[in-house]
Amino acid sequence: MSAIWTEEELEASVLAYMDMRKKDSMAEPYIKKSYYSELSKRFGRTEKAFEYRMQNISYVMSLMGRKWVKGLKPAKHVGSNHIEIIERLVSKVEGKSYVGQATFEGQVWELKKKKSFSKPSGEIRPNSVTSQVTKYQRDPRVKAWVLKEAEGRCENCDNIAPFLTAEGEPFLEVHHLKHLADGGSDTVTNAIALCPNCHREFHYGQSMASKLEELYGKNSRLIRE
Ligand SMILES: [Zn+2]
Ligand SMILES: [Zn+2]
Question: Which ligand is nearest to the CA of 136?
Fold first, then answer.
């Protein structure tokens, strides 16, 4: 068994992961161990090794602001080259183009944990790249309705919007509980008005799953998808 993971092994792991994630989102039962055991037989690594790899994939998903598979807590011990490969594979499986968000954030994390590193000179004129990004055609009526319904308060923490926009409107963001990228609908039963703090937490917070459950429990408008 080689210490270096081949692209083929990583791809098979990502495919298995995305399959579990899909089942999670449809509340379909499955057994994680059977995925690991199948991979283990195929590639000759231990089931544990695959389980840990799955947690690395959760980490990449979390860097992308996406949901991770229940019970597979993100494990950050993964080299930035692997983060890039995994992000590329996730994008490929989803039929989207690679944007490098997890790759960038993974590099930030690596640097932050260094004891010291010298002040960077940065780039006066950063290079730009044009990339294809999948955009969803949202219904402005859904966003407007949800914002009106919220009456200037975050529907999660109930605090009033943190500031007024230039137009004098309370600033809130409309979030889709089941992300559009995961096949969520653009309807008022899947959309919620959040303050920016709560919104970021729903994407990047460590307890996003339990927060989500709470929200479904307290707001009768929302329907689980
Ligand atoms: Zn809030
Ligand atoms: Zn959102």
Answer: 2
Separation of CA 4 and ligand 1 centre (Å)? 44
Which of 24, 32, 96, 100 lies closest to 67 in space, CA to CA?
A: 24
Question: What is the distance between the alpha carbons of residues 158 and 213, in angstroms, rounded to a whole number?
Answer: 16
CA distance 44 to 205: 35
Kindly give the residue spans of alpha helices, DSSP state H, lying in 44-100: 47-63, 80-93
Contact 141, 183 (CB under 8 A): no
Report which secondary-structure segment, H or E, holds 40: helix 32-43
- How far is the centre of ligand 1, averaged over its atoms, from the C-alpha of 155 (Å)? 7
pLDDT of 48 higher than 80: yes
- CA separation (Å) from 206 to 1, 58, 75, 200, 209? 34, 12, 12, 11, 8
Q: What is the mean pLDDT of residues 136-154?
A: 96
**Sequence spans of domains, the chain:** 7-112, 140-218
Taking Cα atoms as reference points, which of 54, 120, 123, 116 lies closest to residue 89? 54
CATH of 140-218, one of 1.10.30, 1.10.8, 2.60.40, 3.40.1130: 1.10.30
CA distance 159 to 8: 48
On average, the pLDDT of the chain sits at: 93
